[in-house]
Input
Amino acid sequence: MKTQTAFRLEKTLLDALKEEAKRQNRSLNNYVEFVLSKIIERKSHNTTLKAIEEVRKDTNIKTIEEQTISKLLESSEKDIENNDIFSHEYVVKEIRSKYGL
Output
């Protein structure tokens, strides 16, 4: 569901946004929503990369069976569908405690 809101922007910024929206054949609203969503996606992507890097650096990692990973991924997908998304620190901590890592 979309919610209407209002922002105060510098005229030069608003003009630049309008120009770029026009260049991309988008409405101003659509362009601003697109840009903001990309920023949020990038932040989420960076969090995932940090979690992967942290796990790779851990020298005490044990092998986990493929079936266990599948169950973990299914659980994670359900969390994402329900918007129950946690920080990478929480996810790493939960995986370590659940599997004795």
